[in-house]
Write a structure and sequence with these properties.
With 394 residues, the chain is of the alpha/beta class. Helix 7 (195-202) links the parallel strand 9 and strand 10. The protein has helices at residues 34-48, 75-82, 91-94, 121-128, 147-151, 162-176, 195-202, 212-221, 236-249, 290-301, 322-336, 347-356, 370-376, 382-385; strands spanning 14-18, 25-26, 29-30, 52-56, 87-89, 104-107, 133-136, 158-160, 182-186, 207-210, 252-254, 258-262, 271-275, 284-288, 305-309, 341-345, 364-366. Helices cover 34% and strands 17% of the residues. The strands form four sheets. A six-stranded parallel sheet has the order 5-6-4-1-7-8. Strands 11-10-9-15-16-17 form a six-stranded parallel sheet, with helices on both faces. Strands 13-12-14 form a three-stranded antiparallel sheet.
């Protein structure tokens, strides 16, 4: 059982909170504070209840202490988001810090500590000495067995923070216990990078829509010419395996019946529509066609759960964004109408939904990256498993 910190009485408690404050920077300034803002909104009620908070996070990939990767650079942004002062300390200083109810202490970049990525027990002991309860609010780091996400959780009463709890709830509804019919949309460049995802999904969903370069590989395995299109000629056996698994599980796989082809990969390039088995030798497939979009739309209109990872084409460059944008707007409309829940994740997927202007209309959009992909693969995430507790008193 995973317990949520929001269900606990935290008055007078000192919380050791693992956050993901790994935000983009330029010239030592935060350029996108979304992660900070989302984290702060969940923490404010706990601070109002009288909890104090020691905030842990990593930042970048330092090989040792680096002033350009110090979390001191985000302290003011976190203070503004929480609407209260935030103190800053090194890990050694944090052990001596006195925090009053409502107080917040931001600790220096955990990756300055060599024991963090090694899941070092001694570092976990030090981190555990900083508070009463452990709170993991960083699902995006849950696929890593690091000292602050795994070993620490075994040393204190452990809870999911608001963001972690919300993510787990959304993912559970989308894949483990979906309303049916359920549809997964999987796109991107290569089948080889998502073999485990495809194997897991065909056993869990009723329909699988395949797009992007992955669809090209599926089409090639059926004998379709690819011209200059991105595809993996050596993955035909994998495609056959996925199709066999899908048939056995009762999952219907949907591929584009027509495609958008062009001779150049650039914005505004001249393009035309071809049947998916008729790509010219000198052309490349860069998007699903209007007929495919109509087919995929009909699949979504019959769905009660929609799970999305990966674009249907080269969405970054118009006009090759049409299928991704069109289907995203369909999914958003169905969500707004209450007929389906929709969960999406992955960097390109989030970017595509933002470009289509529909991110706010999806039930849940995960920014977790690697953790989201490993969850799609059906893997146990160390940071989530470490929160499991049976009949533990607090």
């Amino acid at each position: 059982m995973i317990r949520a910190i929001t269900d606990q009485n935290v008055a007078g408690k000192r919380l050791v909170v693992r956050a993901d404050l790994n935000v983009p920077m330029a010239d030592r300034r935060v350029t996108d504070a979304t992660r900070i803002t989302r984290f702060a909104e969940g923490m404010k009620p706990l601070l109002t209840q009288g909890a104090s908070m020691v905030v842990l996070s990593h930042f970048g990939r330092p090989s040792g202490p680096d002033p350009d990767l110090s979390l001191r650079l985000i302290r003011d942004d976190l203070s503004r988001a929480l609407a209260r002062p935030v103190r800053f300390a090194t890990l050694d200083q944090a052990r001596e810090a006195d925090l009053q109810p409502g107080g917040v202490l931001l600790v220096e970049n955990l990756r300055f500590e060599p024991g963090e990525e090694a899941n070092d027990p001694a570092l976990a002991d030090t981190l555990a000495s900083l508070g009463d309860y452990y709170v993991n609010d960083a699902f995006s780091c849950a696929h890593r067995a690091h000292a602050s996400t795994h070993a620490l959780a075994q040393r204190l009463p452990a809870f999911a923070g608001p963001l972690m709890a919300g993510e787990l709830s959304a993912l559970q509804k989308a894949l483990e216990a979906p309303l049916r019919p359920s549809v997964a949309i999987v796109g991107g460049a290569k089948v080889s990078t998502k073999i485990a995802v495809l194997r897991n999904l065909v056993a869990k969903v009723d329909h699988l829509i395949v797009g992007g370069g992955m669809a090209n590989t599926f089409l090639f395995a059926r004998g379709a010419p690819m011209g200059r299109s991105l595809h993996e000629a050596d993955q035909s056996a994998t495609v056959t395996e996925i199709l066999t698994l899908a048939k056995a599980a009762g999952c219907t796989i949907h591929l584009p019946r027509d495609v958008v082809v062009a001779r150049e990969f650039r914005a505004g390039a001249t393009s035309d529509i071809q049947p998916s088995n008729n790509c010219p030798n000198d052309a490349m497939i860069l998007d699903a066609g209007p007929g495919a979009l109509a087919d995929f739309t009909r699949v979504l209109e019959g769905a009660r759960t929609i799970l999305w990872n990966g674009p249907l084409g080269a969405f970054e460059i118009p006009p090759f964004d049409a299928a991704t944008t069109g289907l995203a707007r369909v999914a958003a409309e169905l969500t707004r109408g209450g007929t389906a829940i929709s969960v999406a994740g992955g960097g390109d997927t989030v970017a595509a939904l933002n470009a289509a202007g529909v991110s706010d209309s999806f039930t849940y959009v995960s920014t977790a990256g690697g953790a989201f992909l490993e969850w799609l693969e059906g893997r146990s995430l160390p940071g989530v498993a470490a929160l499991m507790r049976e009949n533990e008193e607090v």
